[in-house]
Amino acid sequence: MSDTNFAVIYDLHSHTTASDGLLSPEELVHRAHEMRVGTLAITDHDTTEAIPAAQAEIARAGLPLTLITGVEISTLWENHEIHIVGLNVDIQHPALCQFLDEQKQRRQLRAQMIAERLDKAQIPGAWEGALALAEGGAVTRAHFARFLIAQGKADTIGGVFKKYLARGKTGYVPPQWCTIDQAIDVIHHSGGKAVVAHPGRYNLSAKWLKRLLAYFAQCGGDAMEVAQCQQAPDERTQLAAYAQQYGLLASQGSDFHGPCPWIELGRKLWLPAGVEGVWKAWEPSPNSKERAV
Q1: In which domain, by residue range, is 10 found?
Q2: Are residues 195 and 251 in the same domain?
Q3: Which of 4, 101, 118, 269 has the most crowded CB, counting CB atoms within 10 A?
Q4: Does residue 289 sit within a domain?
Q5: Quick one: 183 and 38 in the same domain?
Q6: Residue 283 has what pLDDT?
Q7: Is the domain of 117 the same as that of 262?
Q8: Which of 128, 256, 103 is nearest to 182 (CA)?
């Protein structure tokens, strides 16, 4: 295939050790390049701390990789935790920095409460264990899950959540996140586009998913993730239809957290016909000399 026909692979959802990913920012950008990703968004949970290191490594190594500054914001809607990705945000914008500091405080308080509940359930050392696994990043439920696996409490992440960390279980603490409209507002104030992350993974019925997307669009949201590297057979087509129905742009991303057999950077990421990629909103026109930041 010639360079003129080579299609850029966009992966607009990935994580590093700044949140619950397994790779450092430097390792992530090199893996993205190895997987032939041309445009990568780093979207850690409620933090942008990985982005400067990733930018520096791309420059140092001369990688032909466009990095999109991003973040995945945790929100609450109708008692459901919904994640909103911000793409192409200004990570130094004062409003965004203050907002993410508040989210970080909420996340830390929740993590400490989870540890307290596990301790009462005769599982000591959860806070110290999760903190060590976070390696300086934000402590998430995924870190508690890895700690519990190491303690022999379950064999898989899914098994841990089902037994200890899901709603109603021993270590579950209800989140106190911001609202969807607050997330959209701060993303827009920092110059970014707001995207509903992995809409097929909230265990919502079709009726409730359409209510979510209608509300998101009503609040001024810009796009929704349509394509992931692991989806049910008809999910991508259905999500594309919803994007058209609610006037939303389409995004795609692996939601990569670390090397595993079924999720990989850039894998199977393409959009069905009839939807427009969210990257069109920031990429220069063919006649422009500007480049995406």
Answers
A1: 3-94+179-281
A2: yes
A3: 118
A4: no
A5: yes
A6: 75
A7: no
A8: 103
Contacts of 121-124 with CB under 8 Å at 24 or more apart are: 121/170, 121/171, 123/148, 123/151, 123/153, 123/171
Last residue of a domain, one of 165, 200, 217: 165
- 190: which 2 tokens? 């920092």
> In this structure, what token pair is assigned to residue 172?
């579950």
Q: Is the domain of 211 the same as that of 244?
A: yes
Tell me if 284 sits within 8 A of 252, measured CB to CB: no
Pairing verdict, β 223-227 and 249-252? parallel
Backbone dihedral angles phi then psi of residue 221, each to the nearest 5 degrees = -60, 155
Selection from 275, 110, 144 nearest residue 102 by Cα: 110
CATH number of the domain encompassing residue 136: 1.10.150.650
Q: Please give the Cα distance from 57 to 73 (Å, whole number).
A: 25
Got the DSSP string for the chain? Answer: --GGGPPPEEE--B--TTTT-SS-HHHHHHHHHHTTEEEEEE--BT--TTHHHHHHHHHHHT---EEEEEEEEEEEETTEEEEEEEES--TT-HHHHHHHHHHHHHHHHHHHHHHHHHHHTT-TTHHHHHHHHHTTS---HHHHHHHHHHTTS-SSHHHHIIIIISTTSTT------EEHHHHHHHHHHTT-EEEE--GGGS---HHHHHHHHHHHHHTT--EEEEE-SS--TTHHHHHHHHHHHTT-EEEE---B-S--SS--TTTT----TT--BGGGGTSPPTT------
- pLDDT (tens digit per residue) in 237-291: 999 999 999 999 999 999 999 998 889 999 999 999 999 999 998 876 555 444 3
Place of tokens 């619950």: 20
pLDDT tens digits along 151-198? 999 999 889 999 999 889 999 999 899 999 999 999 999 999 999 999
